[in-house]
User: Fold these one by one.
Assistant:
Number 1:
Amino acid sequence: MFVGRRMKRDLVTVPPGATLEEAARLLKGNRIHHLPVVEGKRLLGIVTDTDLRNATLRGAAGDGEGAPRTVGEVMTRDVVTLGPDDTIDDAMLILSRQRFGALPVVDGERLVGIVAKADVLAAVLETLDIEGIGVRLEVILPRDMGEVTRLSATLRELPVEVRSLVLAPHGKDRYAAFVRVATIDVPGVRKLLRGKGFTVAELSDFYEPG
Amino acid sequence: MAADGTQGWGPGGPLPERDIADGFDRLIAANRLFGAELNPSVLKKSGKGAPFLVRKPPSRTRMLALWWDLFGHRVDPGELLSRLSVEVRGMAHGDGHLLFGRDRILYDCQILQGNEAVGHLTLDLYRERERIVRFLPFPTRPGHRVVYIEGISLTRQSTGYASALFRRYERLFHDLGFHLFRLKASLSVGKYYWAKEGFDCSDRKQFQEMRDRLWDLVWRLDLPVAEQEVRRLVHMADVAAFRPDIQIPVWRDREGYYTLERDDAHPEEVLFPLGKAFLLGSSPWDGHKVIYTDTPRRTALVWSEKYLSHGTPAGHPEGQKRLTALREAIRREGLLASLIVTEPYLPGMEAVHAIHDPAYLESFREAVARGDRYFATRDCAIGAGSYEAALLAAGGVMAGIDAVFSGRSDNAFCAVRPPGHHAGRAAAMGFCFVNNVAVGAAYARSAYGIARVCILDWDAHHGNGTQNLFEEDPDTLFVSIHEHPSFCYPGTGRRMDRGKGAGAGATLNVPLLPRAGNREMIDAFEREVVPAIEAFRPDLILLSAGFDAHRDDPIADLECTEEAYVHMTRRVLALADKCCSGRVVSVLEGGYRVDSFVASALAHIRTLQGREDMPCSSAGG
């Protein structure tokens, strides 16, 4: 999945000459934390609510002489950006490793969008169908595609709709299959799977350590 | 409402046998107590003569045994007699006496106005044994105490005397622990009068035939009445009050008997409102009225045989067995006589369309007609009767709401299926097709003009259908307490979902982690649910009462017992007393293990009745 599909395109931006107060109002009014700083469409930097707060604190601590007054003075110029053709995986890795809140998306020098952590989380929610009707089961399988095939064949025989199926590594030699099923009779499904020899985790395995 | 029991039946428990026996002696000496047996030759005729043959009183032991059986020694014979012959509207009882039969006591008297006898009254007090256990070797269960109104006749018409007298009697016999009035409504005015007084037809089939005849009449006279209006009549009182705006003629003979068709014997034409005219001209019927006995609140039970016609395949958790077992338990526990059994009706489609998309209902109807085995999703198994049963379930909630708003009952339990709280505007899921509580909420607004409705859903599964339907409505508070969506179907109902748009704040979700039991359930209920309802001040509380949070239930992972339901029911009643005159209409949702479901639902019903004698274990009887 590409960043171009997930990024926000209607952008709130600010010119470098804007005052800190103006920038703070924009952040607050739009309930966002990151403002790309642009000249025309060209991305110059990014300013966050933390940058603004730090600048204000510095100004209050000193005598006011030489304290920054414009966005251009406090913005980060060395911005990590993405292109529309980068993938959501890239975005997730950067956001997770560098602990950024949002990444501007540029086409050359031109700003075309922004991807925030929330947008990436929305993609994950959608993939796992967490907001849809259904319940997640966790099936532990040997690391063998034959078993995965057998699981999907078994699910096919059950009178339930599978909303999502995610296969994750579980230790060295096993998989954890997260199956989201749309039925009220989840204990019935669990029982059927166990009857076919599958290991289905108990509910408590999700929240009780050990 | 709590019976205030001010009639003087003291808290001291049963009277000593000596007092009762002395009472017998005094009455015998005063010629006011006799033995008696029924006189079959008079009973078969009507009117004249005494319906019994007077004999010497039976032995004191037998009289005491009978007295204990009927009154539990709450009253002595002299006091009973004086309370029965109370003066009402300037009319007194003369020559009142008690007659001891083999298994019953009769009260017989003249009705006097001044010194002139203007009428006659006979009451028959007995216990009704349960026929099913009668032939079994072990002791029979004590049956209902019944006041049979053998007859009341007045030569002077309608001073409102009978009505005033029976209101007194209802109170008196309530305090004496009697369960039912019975009578045969056979006199010319009796058929209308008793219906108006809240007597119901004892034989459901007879009532349905009467309803059919009413529809025939409407059709024959080409009256502006829809068939639906007739179909939804479920009580004689509704028939008596039916369409007073339409007057139709009936014909009267010289003795005051009416007929609906003119003939030579009935020359006089009179105009009456439709319902009244119909009843005046109809044939006799057997009537009964519940005297709200040892239950402080009057609870309606909505139930229909047709709820069993929603057939699901063997092994399906939402099976007919749930309701048949509940019905059997209600009968076995002797609750039936204290419940106001209410028949549901098929709702007009406009009432259902207020909640559901017509095209959705139509495709549901078609799926059933085609003989499909499920609708929309495999969970939603259907059979030939499913469409009608689903509509009748919504109509059951409407009938429960009618019972409460008309004052026939204080609250109601609607034992309906299929359940409803997962059903959305155009979505069937989780065994649900029509959202019964939602249809009820809309109906209560349109029919009774109330504004604020609270829907409390304590089924173990989140009521996603109900939430979706009302999440933008600030006048409907939806509160759901359920197993956490990360572990349990339908995977919705997170704490952060608090309503949308204008309805922000009018949705409250309280998820419980798996294995939560009574303590967690009750804590959360007290901490979050009670204050929310209190602050909202609803005009009506609807309960989505599922019983699948029980520890024995297979379809969820909570570990509650009946005690949690008893606690929550009590608190809901107290809240309703504060906000909305006690109006609570409870609607069955889930609960899938038959014994724990039945035990929980029974405990809930008993608590709705205001009883304090709650079971504490989950043993299913």
Number 2:
Amino acid sequence: MSKRVVVFDYGFGNIRSAERALARVGADVEITADYDKAMAADGLLVPGVGAFAACMAGLKTARGDWIIGRRLAGGRAVLGICVGMQILFARGVEHGVESSGCDQWPGTVEPLRAPVVPHMGWNTVKAPEGSHLFAGLDPQERYYFVHSYAVHDWDLNTTTDAFRPPKVTWTTHGEPFVAAVENGPLWATQFHPEKSGDAGAQLLTNWIITL
Amino acid sequence: MSVAVRVIPCLDVTEGRVVKGVNFQNLRDAGDPVEMAKIYDAEGADELTFLDITASSGNRETTYDVVRRTAEQVFIPLTVGGGVRSAKDVDRLLRAGADKVGVNTAAIAHPELIREISERFGSQVLVLSVDARRCPEGTLTPSGFEVTTHGGRRGTGIDAVEWAHRAVELGAGEVLLNSMDADGTKDGYDTEMIDAVRKHVTVPVIASGGAGKLADFPPAIAAGADAVLAASVFHFGDLRIAEVKQTLREAGHPIR
């Protein structure tokens, strides 16, 4: 039976692209902001484009932050993409103004430090050993990024044995930044798997099979 | 790890069909846009650009339909430009499946449109399309390059480099720099123009106009372009995308 995925429609994402890409890899996809459906789905995809503060405000209006938190508490899968990943961090800084995120992870989303911004185009990534998200993908594979902000410092201290450490994938544009995270039921990518051709499809498949 | 140089085929579309004419005149039919988009995707195109060249007079519904059908079948970024006049137009194109939207003439008349679009949808969706040429005799802008309208036939007296810089300050996330002198000539990109704009903007620059042979591509990147766009050389099979990428790789540029 195909897995049911809700693409969370809070007004800030390329929801059609995400829907088509998920359907392509065999998911039963619905675009909605309905609370019950978002809670009941096997997987919840949180897209996001534009500004951090605007996305976060939209997410809160739709109670998306609450839904994400409740799903994670129950061990239910959530995948954040682009700004949908950024808003999972503690805070974002845009034009010198700080705003709060969902705070699932510590860390600050801040402007990219590079000569040419946005970081727009296909880049390689450095996935950690044992990554499920990048399973079966060539280390030289490229993924489509388009963003002006990123998380440069991963602050979550997981050195104690009590934690299963999150798998953090990095890339570089000017300076290194977080390209993807796998942390229990919460996964996220700064790039756009739904726009990353066949590699992106493989990556979405890797998520779907965990649901 | 560094971002790859992008190779972007551009499909000039009118009435739901792909066309490309020399200097935007004498249009020739080169096929169905959705089928061509699939072929280019399979051949390794890094993005696709649709330019609706009859948008100002034609029926926009055909364009939305082409965008919708393309986005259903192609999983790489799609930029759509031509006749975009308002944030509402942008909204409709994004909803149809476009990832980025090119704005040209309407932004010249109303620069605040750039700010309006970027504030609502983010800079990353907004490509400023500049049709520029070397100033004809008797006119001069500070950079020596001038913005044109009407497919390059009409000069505006606006400095192309200053315009690109201002548009980026207003929120444009990328500049598509089309040399109207080089367009359709197959004599190579205008690398001086690329260099002049590159020095004054911090967003990605796409070189457009003039590609005719493989050797034309590396100089555009060397001059500062982040991406190269071409139309007719791809449509008529003169060059293949894989060949262009191989040429760029041999010149030392990262490619996908």
Number 3:
Amino acid sequence: MRIKVSSYLSVVILLIILTLAGCNTKQELRWSERELNLINTLLLPDPNNPLERLTPVDHGNGVSMDRKAASLGQHLFFDPRLSGNGKVSCSSCHQPSRAFSDNEVVSQGMGVTAMHTPTIIGVATSPWLFWDGRADSLWSQALGPLENSVEHGANRVQLAHVIFNHYRKQYQEIFGPLPKILSDPNFVKLAMPLLDVNDASAQSITLAAAWHDLPQDHQRQINRVFANIGKSIAAYERMLMPTPSRFDRFATELARQQHSNLLTAQEQAGLKLFINDKQTQCLRCHNGPMFTNHDFQVTGIRPNPAKNTGRIAGVEVALRSEFNCAGIYSDTPQNCPELTFAKRGSRELKFAYKVPTLRNIGQTAPYMHNGSFSSLMAVLTYYNQAQPQLLQGSGQRTDLVHYDLQPLRLMPHQLKQLEAFLLTLNSAPADTNAWFKPPVLY
Amino acid sequence: MNIRSFQPKSFVSPVVQQLYIWWNWRTPSRYVGSVIISALLLSYQCVAQPIIHINTPQAAVSYRVMSDNGSFELLIEPQGVIRLNQLHHWRATITAVELGGAITASNDVNLINSDNVIVTGGMPKHGHGLPTQPNIGTIVKLRDNKVSFLIQGLKFQMFGPWVINISVTTAGDIVRFNFEIRP
């Protein structure tokens, strides 16, 4: 029996029509109830009250909500006198015009840093700071770069003198009287304890010797001023919250009227992929209004040359720090839940780094904790295959290394959709917000 | 139809060709096979363990779970509202099941202390454990067969299926509380 040509043709034409119908990009996307619920969890709350659902945390900082402390902190943030050479301020790397990052792979302070500088916008919602989570509060994190020889290269006695000489009135209004030793002209000008037992540089030894010569009471007084510097800077950073992005405006309209054109079809397709918990599973880590679960995950990026092992070492540093929530310079040493219940010693923490926010991700290239990915598409391509760099050429058994990524297995056009969506997370510019700019000097 | 005489034109795709062949070779047995497979899949849905849903933010719900060997029942009462990425506590109440009226290690609540209650858990599908190290608060005896304590420091950092295992080593038994965190 011969089959007629017209029968074949009609089947082929039917298939072509069905396929083309699916390709119609002008068709409005439908959102299921589950998808709408998921989108709602990512939404920034009311723009008039951005702290409403974003919960800032700063355990042990009694002035975190004090406006005067935030103002002092803003002045300190932009002041290059808080450095060894008088040229490095927090804003040298956390630049307002670059979403408080610097768009460099690693950064230049007094030396070259080991890690990529992340954004500070919204960081006040994070209970753990630094890529390896070695600080348990925003105020104790601020102290790290100040005494890091490749960042500010300062020391706590020098910084106490800066407060005494330039910020005495503002400091004393918030924290009470400064130590009398700072007004003694014979009091040492530069000193700090040795922070890294492997550091044998002449300068560190000199500073450590000068610190060691101080009576314990003087050390504690200096430490208290130092801690208060951190608390002021943290109070300022708490004011740097993300403003609603185009995604937030789209999601608000979608919740109200079930459809919105504030995102293009390509961007909406990207959002659908982003919240897909079967395929991309982005929400495993990048969930909540800050697009991060604030946890530590292994992305398998090759470690930087400093052989940093991530959270497994970082959590131990935080637990030992004299400036952590449980220490004598904390204002709430009895209330340290994150420190109390921190996971330790698990192989899931080795090479685990903090999940960064995706808000303003379009402005904070390059990417990952060592800045090794120059573009968003490079990151997405890596995630698409999810072949960990850590294991390549190492001969390590794969079952001994915990790894958190699953391949996305997306087509190239889908990766472009995902990238387009991520670029909608940039905050609207906050030109009228004075906190986002250098302060008017006292 | 005789498959050997089937000579489609070369421009028809192999997929269409295969579909056409299957359609002309359909038999009762293929229909029956697909019906049986569908029935098996549907029945699996019905008899599979129903999973408890925790829809965040979740407030004021309690859960009762039986231990594996039936030695005790656990009542779980989350304190406050369960939200993603936030530390919170659960109140757990163990009620020992009396087996034949005799007090043995498995139903003697006096033996339970914070050293022999062990909490583990995680997301088996993702291959990771709990993101924090919860601990057991003071054990309070409520009745001869009932004790209560806080499981402190729980945190869930992802949506999806979770398990919390509470093992009581003196009872030689364990409760596996399976639930799904949903938006």
